[in-house]
Amino acid sequence: MTALVLAVAMAATKPAGADQVGHERARRLVQEGKIKPLQEIVDMLREKVPGRVLETELEEDDTGLVYDFKILQPGGRIQEVEVLAATGRILKIEDDD
Fold this sequence. Notes:
By secondary structure, the chain is α+β, with helices and mostly antiparallel strands. The chain has a domain of 61 residues: Nuclear Transport Factor 2, Chain: A (Roll). The chain contains two helices and five strands, in the order E-H-H-E-E-E-E. A five-stranded antiparallel sheet has the order 1-2-3-4-5, with helices on one face. The termini are far apart. The N terminus is likely disordered.
């Protein structure tokens, strides 16, 4: 993955209250230093949440700009992880229903 590839996979539906950010806007936000590049976030996330990234979205919601990940855990469970795009701080980790 590179910093320019910000949308790994886009889900067919989006959560209520969240708007997906297109890759051109995401690239501009990275270049302006307003958000961290996806690869940097993934590297930070791997230190704290084991598993394989299945899907990533960059969304804007009430919290701000958030990377939303679906991660396949070693035991087969899928977790949803939300990370603040500007800082890399994990906002939420929960099992995906």
